[in-house]
Specification:
single chain; 982 residues; alpha+beta; Methylamine Dehydrogenase, Chain H; snoRNA binding; WD domain, G-beta repeat-containing protein
Length: 982
C-alpha cells in the first residue's frame, strides 16, 4: 500500500522590514499632488510592503498568491512605473509580477483606519492580487525598469503628467542568465529577447526618445541619402558611354533617382513613423550593463546592439565587472560604476530631453562655435555642451559609424570608501541660468534660460556612508572651466619665465611639447571634474545596501532663493540598511554648495557642519531583529516562539506571528523556554548564563563566566528539571532548577522564584558545538569540532559511544522521540542517521549543496527536517531513506540559520540570514513520495531544457544571430502543446 503524507504550505513571512538583497523606492500615489509623500516601498521575502514612514506602519502588502512550497521565491527587484500606477516586482525564480498601485484616496482611507496590532505581521493589511504574471527568464531577476515616454522630461516630484503622455506599458527586465526581455504589459506577452551579456545583467535603463531629436536625425539622414544618391548618379554619368541613347538613359536614371529621393524625403519626414521604425536607434533605446565588463546600447525594436562601451583605462582589467548605471534626466551624461573607485563618464548624443529648440545640423558642419557666448571660444562651448542639444549626432572618425556615447573621462571617488560602486542615482531640478546671446531661435538679447542642476548619489553596498556629488549647471561649468584655464595660463607663464634662461634650446622645445601634451590630457580629464564636484558623505550607523533619491520642492526656500525656478536644491534619500531597517534623510545641497564655495580648510567643526547639512527624518526599525538570528525555540504548549539574535531576543505568538516581547541583551547565542513559559534561559558569547523573567522583563539570575568561552548550545532535560550547556572552552556543564528560599530581608522579594545551580561538569577533547538529551533522559550527546559525536550516560557522565564518520565538524544534532535514532548534520553537506543502541551508521544522506545548519525530528515520527546554507528546507522519511519534499527550494541568496517546530509538528518556523522568519503549516492535503519524486524529475528535465535553450541561442560574444522567443519552456507548456497537436 502506498504511504501518504501531509503537505506543508507556506503560511506567512514576518520579522523582515527591508531585505538586504533587494532595492527600496519612494512612492507617491498617482492622484496625489506634486508635494513629497512619506510612503516607501521595501521588499520582505516574497512580498513588497508599502510603508508610511511617518507613522512607521505598513499599509499595503503586494504578495503573490499562496501556493505550494516549491513555488515560494523571494522578491529581489521592484520598479515603479513613470505614471506611478503600476508596480513591477522581480523574483528569484525569474518571474515578474505586476500590481496596480493604490490611489491617494485608498491610502487616505487606510491612514484613517486603526493601526495594525503589530507592524511585523501582515495581518489586517491591504493585499491586492497581482494583475499580471510574466514568465520568461531562466534565472533570478537582477534588473528591472519601465520604459519612459517620448519628448517628456520627467523630473522627480513633478506634477503628474497628462493621461497618455507617458508610455509606461513596456517593462524591461534583466536576469542572471544574461538576457534582457521587453514585455508588453497590456498584451501580457514578451516582445523582444536580447542576449545582452555573457554574465549577469547588473542594470538596465530605458532612454526617452525625444521627437525633436528624432526629427533632426531623420532630416540629417535624408540629406545624407540625397547627397549619396547624387554622387552615385554623377559617377554613373561619367562612366557611361557618351552617346545620345546613353545620355538619355543617364538623364532618366538621374530623374528617377531624384524622384526616389523626393519620395523618400516625403515618407521619412520628421513626423513619419516609417523613419522611426527603420532607422537604427529610432526605436526603444536601452542601456544595459553586465558582469562581463561591457555597457551596451540597444535598439530593442530592431533587437540590435548599436554600440558597446569597453573600458580602456590603464589598469581597467582589475575592474572587470560593471555594477551600476545612471543617466541624467537630460540624457546627456552616462555614469558607469565598476569594481574600482573610478566612475566612468560618457557623453550621450542625439538623446537630449531638453525643451529647447534643436538645430538640424549634422556632425561636421563647421558651425560648432557659432552660438558661443561673447568672450568664450568655440572649444569652451563644445566642452560645456558636450553631449547636449548642440551635439545631436556623432560619427566615429575611425569606423564612420554613428556613436551614441563617447568617453569623456573618469570621476575619482574620495579615498577611504569601498571600491565597488553598486548604486548610482541622479536627482535634478531647474534653475535660472546665465544670460545668453542672440540666437537663431528668436530669443531676445539678455534673455535668461532655464538650466538643470542636481546631485549624483553614489553607494558601494558595503559601506556605512553614501557620497554626494554636485552636478553643475551649464553656466557654472563654464565659470569653472574659465577659472581652471586661467590658472593653467598663469602656471604656463611662470614655467616660460623659468625656461628663458635655459641654455639648451632643443631641450626647451622638448619640454614645451611635453607640457602641451600634459595640458591637453589635463584639460580632457578636467571636463568631468568641472561638471561633477564632490560635496560630502552621508554617514549612517549601519551598512547601506541600497538607496533611492528624489528632489524635493520646498516653496519657502524657493521664494527666498531667486536663482531657483520653483524648486530648491534639496533632496531626500531613503536608505535600505543591512540591519533590517530603513532610514529617510534630507540633504541640504545649497548649504553644502555654499560651504564648498567658502573654501574653508578641514577643521574639527567639519563634522558639525556635515550634521547641519544632513538631517534624519525617520528610521523604521521596529518589528524585526537587527542582528543575525542564532536560534529559534518553541514553548512547551506551542503558543510562543523565541527568536534569539545578536542584539537580544524576541517572543512571538505562533498563531498570529506578533511580537509580544523584545529584550536587548549583549550577544546571546542560545536559549529555551522554561516550563510554564514564564522564564527563558539564555547563553551568551561571553560565557554567561541568564535566567530571564519574560513577564517582568527582568533578569532573575545571572551566572557570570559560567564557561570560559562562548556558550554554543543549551539542552533542556526531557523531564524539565534542568539543562546542559556546552561551550567553546571544551566542557559540558549540568544544571538543575530549584526554587529560591532566602531568609534575608534583602532578598525576600526573590524568594520563591525559579533559579538554577550547577551539579556537574564534563571535560571534552575539543570545542563543543551542540548538545542534546535523548527523549528518555538516558543519554547526553555532544557534537564536537573535531568531527566526532560523543554519547555519555546522563546520570554517571561516563562515555557510552564515540561516533566517527563526518569529514567536517558536526554542526547540529537531533534525537527521535523514541530515543532509537540520532541524526547529525555536518559542514560536509551530509546528514547521517545513527542507531543509539550500537552506534552504527544506518544511513548517510547527501542532503544539501552546502553545510547543514540544523536537523530536527518531528515528534512521534521518524520524519526529519533539515535546513542548510544553500537556502533549502527538506523533509525526509528516515524509514524510507528518501527525501519526501523540498519544503523550501534553494532559490534565494539567504542561507537558513535555524529552524524549530511545534510540539505536534503542525507548524515549522525557519530563520535565514536576512532576518526573515517564515512559518510553514501542515495541511490536510496528502502527498505521495512517488509523485513528488516524479515532479522532481520533471523539474530536472525543465532545467535541462533551459540549458539546451541557452546553448542553442546566440551568446553575447557569438557572431551568429538566432531568433529566440521570450517565453520559457516548461513541462506544462510541453503537455499543452502535445494536447493541441493531438
Amino acid at each position: 500500500m502506498v504511504k501518504a503524507y501531509l503537505r506543508y504550505v507556506h503560511e506567512e513571512a514576518f520579522g523582515l522590514l527591508s531585505s538586504p538583497y533587494a532595492n527600496v523606492a519612494f512612492f507617491s500615489p498617482a492622484g496625489s499632488p506634486g508635494r513629497p509623500s512619506a510612503y516607501v516601498l521595501t521588499c520582505a521575502g516574497a512580498s513588497v510592503t508599502l510603508w508610511n514612514s511617518v507613522r512607521q506602519c505598513p499599509l499595503v502588502s503586494f504578495s503573490p498568491p499562496s501556493s505550494h512550497g516549491s513555488s515560494y521565491h523571494h522578491a529581489v527587484r521592484l520598479a515603479l512605473s513613470e505614471s506611478r500606477s503600476h508596480l513591477a516586482v522581480g523574483y528569484s525564480d525569474g518571474s515578474v509580477r505586476v500590481w496596480a498601485t493604490p490611489t491617494a484616496a485608498d491610502l487616505s482611507q487606510l491612514a484613517a483606519s486603526a493601526l495594525p496590532s503589530s507592524v511585523s505581521s501582515g495581518t489586517h493589511l491591504l493585499s491586492p492580487p497581482p494583475a499580471l504574471t510574466l514568465q520568461g527568464h531562466r534565472s533570478a531577476i537582477t534588473a528591472l525598469c519601465w520604459s519612459a515616454g517620448e519628448d517628456q522630461t520627467s523630473f522627480p516630484e513633478s506634477p503628474r503628467a497628462a493621461p497618455g503622455a507617458a508610455v509606461d506599458h513596456l517593462l524591461i527586465s534583466g536576469s542572471a542568465d544574461g538576457d534582457v526581455i521587453v514585455w508588453d504589459c497590456v498584451a501580457g506577452a514578451g516582445l523582444h529577447r536580447l542576449h545582452a551579456h555573457a554574465g549577469q545583467v547588473t542594470q538596465v535603463l530605458a532612454l526617452k526618445r525625444p521627437r525633436a531629436a528624432l526629427a533632426s536625425e531623420t532630416s540629417w539622414q535624408c540629406r545624407r541619402d540625397t547627397a549619396e544618391d547624387m554622387r552615385r548618379a554623377e559617377e554613373a554619368q561619367e562612366a557611361a558611354p557618351q552617346t545620345v541613347r546613353g545620355k538619355r538613359k543617364v538623364e532618366d536614371g538621374r530623374g528617377s533617382a531624384s524622384a526616389r529621393v523626393a519620395a523618400s524625403r516625403a515618407l521619412d519626414g520628421p513626423g513619419s513613423t516609417r523613419a522611426s521604425r527603420t532607422l537604427p536607434g529610432a526605436g526603444l533605446l536601452l542601456v544595459s550593463a553586465g558582469k562581463d565588463g561591457l555597457v551596451k546600447i540597444w535598439d530593442a525594436d530592431l533587437e540590435l546592439c548599436l554600440q558597446s562601451l569597453v573600458d580602456t583605462l590603464p589598469g581597467a582589467s582589475k575592474a572587470k565587472e560593471v555594477w551600476s548605471l545612471a543617466v541624467n534626466p537630460q540624457q546627456t551624461r552616462l555614469v558607469v560604476g565598476c569594481s574600482d573607485q573610478l566612475l566612468r563618464v560618457y557623453a550621450l548624443y542625439g538623446l537630449s530631453a531638453s525643451r529647447r529648440s534643436v538645430s538640424g545640423r549634422g556632425p561636421g558642419t563647421g558651425n560648432e562655435g557659432e552660438n558661443a557666448p561673447e568672450g568664450e571660444s568655440a572649444d569652451d562651448a563644445l566642452a560645456a555642451n558636450e553631449g547636449g542639444e548642440d551635439a545631436e549626432l556623432h560619427v566615429d572618425p575611425h569606423t564612420g559609424l554613428r556613436c551614441f556615447a563617447r568617453f569623456l573621462g573618469v570621476l575619482p571617488r574620495p579615498a577611504g570608501g569601498q571600491k565597488k560602486t553598486t548604486c548610482l542615482k541622479f536627482a535634478c531640478w531647474s534653475v535660472r541660468g546665465g544670460r545668453r546671446g542672440r540666437e537663431k531661435t528668436g530669443q531676445e538679447d539678455g534673455e535668461e534660460e532655464a538650466e538643470e542642476e542636481g546631485v549624483l548619489i553614489v553607494g558601494s553596498g558595503n559601506s556605512r556612508s553614501v557620497e554626494v556629488f554636485k552636478v553643475c549647471g551649464e553656466s557654472e561649468r563654464r565659470k569653472r572651466m574659465k577659472r581652471r584655464r586661467k590658472r593653467n595660463e598663469e602656471k604656463k607663464k611662470k614655467r616660460e619665465e623659468k625656461s628663458r634662461d635655459a641654455r639648451n634650446t632643443h631641450l626647451r622645445f622638448d619640454e614645451e611639447e611635453g607640457e602641451k601634451e600634459e595640458e591637453r590630457e589635463d584639460d580632457i580629464a578636467a571636463r568631468v571634474t568641472d561638471e561633477f564636484v564632490f560635496l560630502s558623505r552621508l554617514h549612517t550607523a549601519s551598512v547601506v545596501k541600497t538607496f533611492h533619491v528624489r528632489a524635493v520642492c520646498t516653496s519657502q526656500k524657493a521664494a527666498a532663493d531667486k536663482s531657483t525656478k520653483g524648486q530648491a536644491p534639496e533632496v531626500q534619500v531613503v536608505l535600505g540598511l543591512a540591519d533590517n531597517a530603513f532610514e529617510m534623510w534630507r540633504v541640504d545641497v545649497q548649504q553644502l554648495s555654499n560651504r564648498l564655495s567658502q573654501k574653508t580648510p578641514e577643521s574639527e567643526t567639519q563634522g558639525d557642519k556635515d550634521d547641519a547639512c544632513f538631517k534624519q527624518l525617520c528610521r523604521v526599525a521596529s518589528g524585526g531583529h537587527r542582528g543575525t538570528v542564532r536560534q529559534l525555540a518553541v514553548s512547551h504548549d506551542s503558543a510562543y516562539l523565541l527568536s534569539i539574535a545578536d542584539e537580544g531576543f524576541k517572543v512571538w505568538t505562533t498563531h498570529t506571528r506578533q511580537c509580544v516581547k523584545s529584550v536587548s541583551i549583549d550577544l546571546p547565542l542560545c536559549g529555551f523556554f522554561v516550563a510554564g513559559n514564564d522564564y527563558v534561559v539564555l547563553g551568551t558569547k561571553a560565557g554567561d548564563l541568564l535566567l530571564f523573567d519574560v513577564g517582568a522583563c527582568a533578569v532573575r539570575q545571572r551566572l557570570e563566566h559560567a564557561h570560559g568561552g562562548a556558550v554554543n548550545a543549551l539542552a533542556e532535560h526531557p523531564k524539565h528539571t534542568g539543562f546542559a550547556s556546552i561551550s567553546a572552552d571544551k566542557s559540558v556543564k549540568l544544571f538543575v532548577f530549584h526554587l529560591s528560599d532566602s531568609g534575608s530581608p534583602q532578598k525576600k522579594e526573590d524568594s520563591g522564584n525559579v533559579q538554577f545551580r550547577q551539579v556537574g561538569s564534563l571535560p571534552l577533547p575539543d570545542q563543543g558545538l551542540d548538545v542534546r538529551y535523548s527523549m528518555d533522559g538516558k543519554f547526553l550527546i555532544c557534537a564536537l569540532l573535531d568531527m566526532t559525536v560523543l554519547v555519555f550516560y546522563s546520570d554517571t557522565c561516563k562515555l557510552f559511544l564515540s561516533l566517527y564518520g563526518h569529514q567536517l565538524p558536526v554542526l547540529t544534532l537531533a534525537v527521535s522521540s523514541d530515543s532509537t535514532r540520532l541524526a547529525t548534520g555536518s559542514a560536509d553537506k551530509t546528514v547521517k542517521i545513527w542507531g543509539l543502541d550500537f552506534g552504527n551508521i544506518q544511513q548517510s544522506l547527501l542532503a544539501h549543496d552546502d553545510a547543514v545548519t540544523q536537523v530536527l525530528f518531528l515528534f512521534g515520527t521518524h520524519y526529519l527536517l533539515s535546513a542548510s546554507s544553500d537556502a533549502s528546507l527538506k523533509l525526509w522519511d528516515v524509514d524510507r531513506q528518501s527525501c519526501l519534499v523540498a519544503i523550501l527550494p534553494s532559490a534565494s541568496k539567504s542561507p537558513l540559520r535555524c529552524l524549530a517546530a511545534s510540539q505536534d509538528g503542525d507548524r515549522v518556523f525557519v530563520a535565514d540570514a536576512s532576518r526573515l522568519l517564515q512559518c510553514w503549516r501542515r495541511t490536510s492535503e496528502q502527498l505521495f513520495a512517488e509523485e513528488e519524486e516524479e515532479r522532481r524529475w520533471e523539474e530536472s528535465a525543465e532545467r535541462e531544457a533551459l540549458r539546451e535553450d541557452g546553448v542553442l541561442v546566440s551568446t553575447a560574444t557569438s557572431a551568429a544571430v538566432v531568433m529566440d522567443r521570450t517565453s520559457k519552456r516548461t513541462m506544462e507548456t510541453v503537455r499543452t502543446t502535445e494536447r493541441l497537436m493531438e
